[in-house]
Structure prediction request, 224 residues.
Amino acid sequence: MLTLYYFPGACSMAAHIAVEETGAPYQAKLVALRDGEQRSPAYLTINPRGQVPALDVDGRIITENAAILAYLGRSYPTAALLSSDPVQEAQCLALLTWLSNTVDKAFRQTVRPERFVTDEAAIPAVQEGGQTIYWNSCQEIDALLAHQPWLMGERYTVADPYALLYYGWGIRLKLPMQDLANFTRHKDRLLERPAVRTVLQREESPLLKVARTAEPIDRPRRAS
Prediction:
């Protein structure tokens, strides 16, 4: 039995969608981050870093999105979430790693710059640098989707719900995500998948309220 520890709107959304896509029975267990439950002794025995997601596989714990997504893709081949070709699998894992190490970090640098620098005078520059990297990364994702429906080509993989997370976070940052036509079509295509909608409804995601015909929002502003 699988148990996924998650929080609505957090990076655990990617793993939440992927486990739903497998069709395997699982329990989704909310960790109340705003109440500090992630720092409780009980949860720290699950993930000593005090973060979500965490996936309990019959008593064994997997942490970190890239690892959880890779596990789900490999363990449920009938869901076809990861290629059986070794090179294509490695390419998908490389993409998961980039999303985790670069895109996720840039978002956190933008919204929590004080975690990256101790000098308060440097915070605006750190924040602005994070936003620039994040926007450049979103443009890179948009370019990857220019001539293919999914990030890995014609095949939907665990990388796609992971990218959806960062589309939604781009909206939170008030970046002009609608200007990224390919990425936006990718988001719309994902919203048509039953597993994606099930999870987004459970998490009450604002992505469900983003209309296809929405006007582009303001261009990125300099961080302040």
Observations:
- The chain is about 50% helix and 10% strand.
- Confidence is low (pLDDT under 50) at residues 213-224.
- Residues 123 and 175 are 20 Å apart (CA to CA).
- The chain has two domains: 2-79, 86-209.
